[in-house]
Amino acid sequence: MQAREFSELLPWVSLNYKKGEREFSMSSIFNLDGPFFRFMSKVADVIMLGMIALVFCIPVITIVPTITAVYYITLKTVRDEEGYLWRSFWKSFKMNFKQGVIIELIFAVIALVLTVDIKYFYNTGIVQGNDIYRILFAVMLGVAFIAVITLLYVFPVLAKFENTIKGILRNSMFMAVRHLPATIGVIAITLIAGFAVYMIPPLMLFMIAIWAFANSYIFVKIFDNYIKNDDKDPDDFEITKSDETDSEELEEKKETPSIEDDSDDMNTDRNDDEKRGKSDDNTDVNEETHGEELTDADSEKDSDKEDGIEVTGEVTQ
């Protein structure tokens, strides 16, 4: 039997051959570390994760913590940061259980209020034809839309970031509105998953994980815009090297006027001393030559000295 026929019977046997200019390797395709087995491993993990999530959603009150734990794993899977399936799921479930239950109760109350209001405004505004209630009906639909897209973002945001409940809700709504095209994609995936379960109910066994896994590709790209600065407080400012140099230059500039002022004071003192020396020399000459005029010259110079001291004092101030 030829080597090529043998490889066709056993495709996992390594055999390299050229077809045209491209080289194929059967062993690389069917290797345990190859793309085929990695893909099949992810599929098996998603199916297993979906079954675990379905079981944990049975108490109803644990829906948000459960879906959050599913996103915790799928976000890591998309980034190729895979770990132990059950251990990662249980870790996220316990860590986000309290916040998840509270958020679920909040959205339950919001859903109840919106359902009652929308039904009332529909009967009063659309059926009976009241214009004011038609406007309120449209407003309630807008509020319901914001609440739905916020809920879609709550699961991955809670799984990825640590924050207060208020911060999680605020950031989820902010991201959903800011990245509206991506949000529309998440809505489309959600509708497709729901329609598939409606048409084929057994898909519910693992559809939760498939739905989260598909959405994780979108959320990973969105979160990349925030992960780089997620540990920094916007109110805290770090001094960079350029800021340090600027601050040093400012300090030098602040100190420079004082030095100049000191030098000016020294120069004025030297000028006063020179003037005094010259005046003393002049007084000596005047004493030798003009004895009678000495008193008048001394009095005038003394007055000049006093005037000069007063002027320098004003300039210094």
**Cα-based radius of gyration, to the nearest Å:** 41 Å
Low-confidence stretches: 1-24, 230-268, 285-317
Strand content: under 5%
- Listing every helix as H and every strand as E from the N terminus to the C terminus, the arrangement reads HEEHHHHHHHHHHH
| Major β-sheet annotation | 2 strands, antiparallel
Global geometry: elongated
Class from helix and strand fractions? mainly alpha
Number of helices: 12
* Major beta sheet, strand line-up: 1-2
Q: Level of helix content?
A: over 70%
Distance between the termini: 109 Å
Q: Would you report the number of β strands?
A: 2
| Average pLDDT reading | 74
Which secondary structure elements does this structure contain, and how are they paired or packed?
Blueprint: H1 3-9, E1 16-19, E2 22-25, H2 26-29, H3 35-56, H4 63-78, H5 85-95, H6 97-127, H7 131-160, H8 165-178, H9 180-199, H10 207-227, H11 241-289, H12 294-316
Antiparallel strand pairs: 1-2
How would you describe the overall organization of this protein?
This protein is an all-alpha fold. It is 78% helix and 3% strand. The protein has helices at 3-9, 26-29, 35-56, 63-78, 85-95, 97-127, 131-160, 165-178, 180-199, 207-227, 241-289, 294-316; strands spanning 16-19, 22-25. A two-stranded antiparallel ribbon has the order 1-2. The longest helix has 49 residues, at 241-289. Mean pLDDT is 74; it is low at 1-24, 230-268 and 285-317.
Task: Describe what is shown at a glance.
The chain is about 80% helix and about 5% strand. It is mainly alpha-helical.
